[in-house]
Amino acid sequence: MRLSTLCDRLNERLEHDRYAGVDASSNGLQVGDGSADVGRIAFAVDGAIATIEAAAKASADALVVHHGIVWGGLDSVTGAAYDRVAACVERDVALYASHLPLDGHDELGNAAGLAAFLDCEPLGNFGEYGGVTIGRRARANEPYTVESLRERLSALDTGGRDVRVLDFGASSIEEIAIVTGSGADWIGEAAAAGVDALVTGEGKQQAYHEAREAGLNVFFAGHYATETFGVRGLKRLVERWGVEATYLDHPTGL
């Protein structure tokens, strides 16, 4: 498949146009020659020298990631940006990124994938950000306790990191709001929605007081761990398109 064709199909499937002007990430093809052919694609959460090298080692022609290397455009290509671009060029590995679109997509998104992992039925979108939504609201098929939800989340690829919990809410957890990655800013929206818990990746200092005052359970399962679902979903999608694909696991523990 031609790289430009692949990118166009991914852009359309992920509705990149909806996030234009909202996402700091330059979503789409970030490094590469669109006229080149791609026979094997690697998928990873992060665009970094380690994953670019791993993609090359796996004989991939392109690397599709959630966190790319171009944020808000490039004023210059120096330092870490140069090293990462050079790694792509020297190894002939194109780089494609999808950030917020891959968080909020109702089928392929990180939040949708995490909801399915938690055996939850979707209730709708959640996590308003600049006129779009980046998360999901869901209902557990069987209610969780705080400890059982922590245990389930501990099965994620946390890199050995413990799942942290702010245990300030209901003892029986049925309705859950999900914003993967860094989602502590949505504690207020979760409390207003009346859910029993917010599940996200990482938090901030003020999250403790916000959750306590809101009477809400908040689970921090790791930024990386909560954001593997989107790229794994894209891998399965391109395999259905007849393209060979591989997933590169590189947990950060964060």
Could you describe the 3D structure shown?
The chain has about 250 residues and is of the alpha/beta class. It folds into two domains: about 5-100, NIF3 (NGG1p interacting factor 3)-like (Udp-n-acetylmuramoylalanyl-d-glutamate--2,6- Diaminopimelate Ligase, Chain: A, domain 1), CATH 3.40.1390; about 105-225, 3-Layer(aba) Sandwich (Udp-n-acetylmuramoylalanyl-d-glutamate--2,6- Diaminopimelate Ligase, Chain: A, domain 1). The chain is built from nine helices and eleven strands. The chain has helices at about 5-15, 50-55, 80-90, 100-105, 110-115, 145-155, 185-195, 205-215, 230-240; strands at about 30, 40-45, 60-65, 95, 120-130, 130-145, 165, 175-180, 195-200, 215-220, 245. β5 (about 120-130) and β6 (about 130-145) form a beta hairpin. It starts with a helix and ends in a 7-residue tail after the last strand. The mean pLDDT is about 95.
